[in-house]
């Protein structure tokens, strides 16, 4: 985004949402471990947001952190085979929950499972999934309506339930029921809280086969999630769910030798789809509500877009292309708060990163958290500026500089699903409600496995009456001279 664009659209005073304190002084490895065990993102210093590559050795282990588009291409594309394996920290923290599920597996298991799981959630199915997303979003509007004007809600929890309901109905074809949904959400939240993100056996580079001690809290949380998923799978086998459920593919899949997946493999992949598909989008929506609540300019532009495109209707798939600014809000939220902020890999063969040697056993961290706020790449890197994702205002960023869904062979297969879902849900709810942060609430980042706002994210909801369709264009032109509104209005006019 050029200085001219920033001045033309009045973006310099945009809201700066919170991020962990950035030290300017050198930090000892011990200090980093202490900070990282509470919040993984607290270990980065101011300088790291410009530095292209950080190399650090600790007890015989070498760590390379990559914060440069060229390094992303090298790591996740050109040398994807050598850097395919997830880092020991990721494996040891997620394996109790996901087993050998796609998200943590590698080699032959990963290749076979990817062929089975990716088509289940792929963008090609979005035509079938979108009407369900719209239905659930409309139900949430009714629920918020019932909660009453001015009601206080934990928006992070609300979004967890909403996205769990969507993943359940789209993929599992069943209405999970509130009780089960809440148990999964609570189970995963408890799992995140209890897990030792930086476990000492891993930091000391001790072998994988040494058993890691799990706290009773971690095991209880895991068991809670497993119980609900097992129950869904049992109901599925008993024919007690929608026959058309796409999860059927897991039961019908055959490996290269013609064998079906084991019961455990089916459960692991079902949990991967549920967790990968619900937690990430829930965090994105929660951050989006928060950032919008702090940005009057963004609120005005969203309202104008809703009134112009929707006029009170529940958004559908055909509206998504016209909800240009809403989608930009989602993308900007994903830039500032990528739900998977660090992509960890362990090198299994020799390679290079930005001209430096990488040896087998070295750890690589491709860091969307640093890359998507890199001062050399982004103007106003810490500001919430959706306009940078509006095609008629700014050029799209380099595709290796903005990677909330990763990149290369392990790219998120649910990307289209997630972007469609987030756009529909955000538009459906914000069209009818203004959301305001509870007075005095300090929101912070919380990053153990995924990046989420601290909970509860208490916000009050206030009804608004959308104008009839088309009315928004006039509202937008009222701010035309100084804002992105004119451009957006032109886009909508030409789209209609
Ligand atoms: C805003 C929402 C989402 C974000 C930001 C996101 C991000 C990611 C990222 C970064 C990865 C790769 C991690 C790595 O390489 O270390 C990933 C993998 C994955 N995601 Fe998503 N995701 C989202 C939503 C979804 C949804 C809705 C689904 C399914 C419906 C899904 C299914 C998966 C699966 C199955 C994998 C594992 C892929 C593999 O390892 O081959 N994700 N996601």
From TrEMBL:
Heme binds at residue 412. GO terms for molecular function: heme binding; iron ion binding; monooxygenase activity; oxidoreductase activity, acting on paired donors, with incorporation or reduction of molecular oxygen. Its cofactor is heme. Coiled coil: none annotated. Keywords: Heme, Iron, Metal-binding. It comes from the Bacteria. It holds the Pfam family p450. InterPro entries: Cyt_P450, Cyt_P450_E_grp-I, Cyt_P450_sf, Cytochrome_P450_monoxygenase. The keyword Metal-binding applies. PANTHER family: CYTOCHROME P450, CYTOCHROME P450 12A4, MITOCHONDRIAL-RELATED. Belongs to the cytochrome P450 family. This is Cytochrome P450. The lineage of its organism: Bacteria, Pseudomonadati, Pseudomonadota, Alphaproteobacteria, Hyphomicrobiales.
